[in-house]
Amino acid sequence: MLAHVSSAWIIGVIVALAVIRTPVSIVLHGTTEPVLQFENGPDSQGTVQALGLDPRALARFKNTNPGFLNFAQLLAIYTWNELDQAATTTPVPVLGTYVIGMNSIRFAPRFPWTPGLSYRARLNLYFLYSKYSSVREPRPESIQYLEIHFTPRPWQPRSTAVVTNIYPSSNRLPANLLRMYIHFSAPMSAGHAYEHIHLLDEFNREISRPFLVLDQEMWDTRHMRLTLLFDPGRIKRGLRSNADLGPALTPGRRYHVVVDAKLLDTNGSTLSSSFEKTFEAVEPARGSPDYKQWKLIGPRPGSIEPLRLIMNQPMDHALLERMIAIYHCEPRDRRCEHAIKTPLGADRIRSGRTAGGHVLAFQDILSEEQGASNGSSAGLENASACCGRLTRIDGRIEIASDETEWRFIPKYPWEPGDLRIVIDPALEDPAGNNLNSVFDEDLSESTSIRVSSQNADKVVLRFNLDLPERQPLHK
Amino acid sequence: MKLTALVCVLLSTLFGASGYSLPPMTMARPAVPRSPVTAGMAYGTPDLKAAGSLAFGPEGILFIGDAKSAAVFALDLEDRARDTGSSPIEVRGIDKKLAAMLGTTADEVAVSDMAVNPISQNIYISVSRGRGPDAIPVLIRVTRKGTLEEVPLTRVLFSKAVLSNAPGPEAKTEFGEAARPMTITHLAYADGLLFVAGLSSEEFSSTLRRFDFPFKNTGAGAEATSLEVFHTSHNRYETRSPMETFMPLRVQGKPAVLAAYTCSPLAVFPMDELKSRKLLRGTTIAELGGGNRPIDMISYKREGKDVVLISNSNRTLMRINAEDIDRAQPLTTGVPGIYETSGVKYVSVAITGVLQLDNLNDKFVVVIHRDMETGSLDLKSLSKEYL
Questions:
Q1: Which among B104, B201, B278 has CB closest to A114?
Q2: What is the pLDDT of residues B331-348, one digit of tens each?
Q3: Dihedral angle computed from the Cα positions of residues A465, A469, A472 and A474, in that order, rounded to the nearest 10 degrees
Q4: Which of B99, B237, B239 sits opposite A79 (nearest CB)?
Q5: A362 in Cβ contact with A292 (< 8 Å)
Q6: What is the DSSP track for B160-211?
Q7: Closest residue to B103, CB basis, from A94, A101, A245
Q8: Do the chains contact at B236 and A241, CB–CB below 8 Å?
Q9: Which of A240, A435, A444, A449 to mutate to test the interface with B (most CBs of B within 10 A)?
C-alpha cells in the first residue's frame, strides 16, 4: 500500500513539466542551472523548491526582509483554476511560508494541497536577477521564468459510503415529527445536504421545503451523522409557515425520505447507492412522554445481562444515548444499609419476561427529585438520604425496538444493591416533547406556563437489584 | 539529475538555518498596558475548531462563535487604526479568490459570516476550508484596499467562553456521553453583554445565552445564563423556536433586542428583562412572510431617521423604519393566506441574494452577494442613500 502511494507521488513529480518561456537557457554566474521542482511529502505537505539560484542575489533579496507578497513576486504558486480565471486580473497566490537557503527557496503551503487539484509554480528569475544580481544587465538570452505544474495527490475516486440508518426507526411516525438522524458509514462533505435529501409522498411527489435549512448543516463532529429538523414553522400550530404551507406530514399518508446517491463524502465520491426510508404519518404527538408508564426489567446479579428500560413510546435516538444513566448507591451507615436492603414494595413485582429478570413499573417506584442542584451530584444524593455515595456504573448503551427500549450492559457483572436510574427530563420524543414540557403548547388549554421553574431537574428512580436470597433468579 | 540530488542534500542541511514565515498581523506584546476590555485575556493560540458567527464588541474586540467547541472566542486583533472614510469596497468573485489563496477549489470554501470592524472598517470573514470533519477554520481580513489576507491566530490576545449547557466534543456530560454538537446561529454585543443564539442538533430549545464581557472565569469558561424565549404569534400557541438573527435596538427609547425567527416572525424583547429573567415571552410585531429565513439585520440612519435593514434567504432586502417598531402593536391574528405579511410594514428593497450584511461606514453597507445572472459571489458595497 505504501509502495503504491509512493509511486503515485513519483508520478506526480514526473508529471511536473518545465516550461521555459525563453528557449535558450544559460548558466548564470557560474552556478548550477536553476531548477524548479515539486517534492511530495507525507499528508499532502509537499514543498515547491527552487534550486541553483545565485546565492548573492538571494542574500540581497533576503536582506530586504521580504513579506509574503514580496516572496510571491519571486516564487508564486497558483491553483490551476486561478490562473485560468484571473487572465485579466492579478492572480491570487496560494498562502504559504518561504524558507531561503544558500542558493534555494522552498515554499510550504499554509494548508494541505487539495487532492486532485493541479497547481502551477512560477519562479521569476528576471525579478531576482534584475533587482538583486551584482550583474547590472541580465543577458537577454537568460531564462526569465521557470514554471512547472504538478498534481500533488491524485484524486482517487472511491464509492464506499452508504446510509447505514435513519432514525426514528419506526415506520409509523407522528405527523409533527421534529427530527431525523441520518447515519453514514463514512465521513461526509457538508454544504449540499439539503439538495440531496428529499421527502416524497406516496405518489412520489416531492414535498416542498419540509426541512429547516440552516447555514451550518448539523453534522456531528465526525461528519457521519446528519440531523435534519422538520421546519418548526410547519409543525407548530398557529405559526405562519404552518398556515402558509401547512404541515409537511399529514396523518394517514405514506412518505419516503430519500437520500440520493449524489451526496458526496469527504473524498469527493458519491454514495454507492441511494437510500430510502418509507413511513406512515400518524396522529401528532402533543403531550409530554408519560414516563410513569415505563418499566424496568432487571438483570441477574453476577451477570452482564442488560438492564432493560421499556418505554411506552419511541424516544429520540441520540438523546437516549446520553440522557439516561445508572448509579449505584452505597449506604451511608448501618441503619441505611438495612433500609436499602429492604426492597421497595414495587420491586417485588415479578415477571417471567426475562430469564431471572423482574419488571419494575415506574409509577410504583417513582421518586422524582426536584430541586435546583442543576445537575450536580448533590441532587443525586438527595434522591435518598441513605445514599452515602452514588457511583455511576460503567457500561454501554443499546437502543432497540424502534427506540422504545433502552438497554444498559455493564462493563462488570451486576452486583446486588440499591441502584438509581437517572433520566434527564430534557429527553425528548421524536416530536420534540420532553419530560417537562411540550414542543408546542396550546395556551387556551392550560392555565400556566409549564416550564422550568416547576419542573424536575432530573427524574431519579430507586430500584433494588435482585437479591438472590429474597428473589429467585429464575421463574 | 545527480547534481540536483546532491544540491538537494546540501540544501536540506541548510534549511531551517534561516527562515521566513508569514509575519503575524498582531505581534505579541505582553508588556503593553491592557485596556479594560482585554481583562482576562492572554496571549496564545485560540484552539478554534470552527469559525462561524462573528460580531464586534467594544474597542475592536472580535467575537467568533465556534460551534464545534461550543464556545465563543473574544480576540483583540489590535485593529484600532480609525478610518473615518466613506468609500466603498468591492471584491468580485470573492469565493474564487479565497479558494486561490487557500490553495483549493471554490466549492471547498464555505463563507460562514462577515463582520466589519467599526473602527478600522476592515472586513472580517470567517471561512471553512474544506467541508468534511477535518475542515480548517480560517479568519480572513479584507482591507480597505480590497486585498484579502489571512489573520494569523497565533500569538494573539484572546479569551474564551464556553456555552455552559453545551460542552465541547471531548467533554463529557453528567451522563458521561460526548457533548452534543450545535450550531451558533448568531452573536451580538450590547452594553457589556454578549448574546449567543444557538441550536442543538439533538435537543430543541430557543435558549439565548448571555455572557458578561470581559468574560469572567476565562480559564474555566464563563458562566452563561439561559433564557428560554417564547414568542406568541397567534395569542394562543406558545412555542420554542430557534432565533435566527437578532440585534440590539432601542425601542420606545429603551434598550431592547429585535429578533427574527426561522419561521419568520419578528419579535421584540426588552433588554432589562433579558438581563434579569430566566423565562421571557417576546412580543411579535411583524410577520415577514412564510417560506423565508431572515439572515442578517443591521440598523443605520437614513435621512436622519433610524432604519433597520434585514437580508433574507427567499425574499428581498427589507427596510423597516425604527419609528414603526416603536409604534408596533403585538400581533395577535394570523395572516389570511400563503406568503402574506402583517404587522410592522417594510419596504422591499429590490436586491436579492444578499447572504451577508453589515454596516461599512456612514455612506455604505457591505454585503456578500450572489449575483443571480452570473452566479458570482461578490463582496460589494451598497449606498445607504439608495437602500
A1: B104
A2: 766 666 667 788 899 999
A3: 90
A4: B99
A5: yes
A6: EEE-TTS--TTSB-TTSSBPPPEEEEEEEEETTEEEEEEEESSS---EEEEE
A7: A94
A8: no
A9: A240
Three cell numbers written together for A269: 465520491
Task: Give me A125's grid cell.
Answer: 528569475
Inter-chain touch B338–A442, beta carbons under 8 Å? no
Option in A99, A237, A245 nearest B15 (CB) = A99
- Which part of chain A is CATH 2.60.40.1220? 163-282
Contacts 24+ apart (CB under 8 A), B269-272: B269/B229, B271/B190, B271/B191
* pLDDT tens per residue, range B260-278: 887 678 889 888 888 877 7
Which A residues 165-224 touch B at CB under 8 Å?
178-179, 187-191, 209, 212-216, 218-223
DSSP H stretches of helix in chain B: 2-14, 94-101, 271-276, 322-326
Handedness of CA B283, B286, B289, B292 (dihedral sign): negative
Q: How far is B59 from chain A (nearest CA, A)?
A: 28
Q: Which among B371, B368, B376 is positioned nearest to B111, based on CA atoms? A: B368
Residue A368: which of A287, A450, A456 has the closest Cα?
A456
Asked if A258 contacts A268 with a C-beta cutoff of 8 angstroms, the reply is no
Strand B237-240 to B148-150 pairing: unpaired
Contact predicate A314/A401, CB 8 Å: no
pTM of this prediction? Answer: 0.80
Q: Do B103 and A66 touch (CB under 8 A)?
A: no
Contacts with A189 from chain B: Cβ below 8 Å: 131-132
Summary mean pLDDT of chain A: 77
Question: CB distance from A26 to chain B under 8 Å?
Answer: no
Q: Which residue in the set B67, B103, B313 is minimally distant from A111, CB to CB?
A: B103
pLDDT tens digits, one per residue of A195-234: 999 999 999 999 988 888 887 888 988 899 999 988 766 6
Contact B187, B194 (CB under 8 A): yes
If you count DSSP H runs as helices and E runs as strands, how many of each does chain A have, helices first?
12, 26
Complex ipTM over 0.85: no
Fold observed for domain A163-282: Immunoglobulin-like (2.60.40)
The verdict on a CB contact (< 8 Å) between A37 and B264 is no
Hey, is the C-beta of A51 within 8 angstroms of any chain B C-beta? Answer: yes
Between A158 and B2, the more confident residue is A158
Burial readout A64-86 (b: 16 or more C-beta within 10 A, e: otherwise)? eebebeebbebbbbbbebbbebb
If you classify domain A2-150 with CATH, what class do you get? mainly beta
Mean pLDDT of B196-212: 78
Mutate to test the interface with B, among A177, A216, A422 (most CBs of B within 10 A): A216
Rounded CA gap, A309 and A294, in Å? 7
C-alpha grid cell, residue A188:
461526509
What are the beta bridge partners of residue B183?
B199
Phi and psi, residue A114, nearest 5°: -85, 125
**Which residues make Cβ contacts (< 8 Å) with residue A379, sequence separation at least 6?**
A369, A371, A373, A457, A458
Angle at B43 between CA B40 and CA B48, to 5 degrees: 90
Give the 3-state secondary structure of residue A9: helix
Highest mean pLDDT, choosing among A124-138, A273-287, A317-331: A273-287
Q: Where in chain A is the domain with CATH 2.60.40.10?
A: 2-150
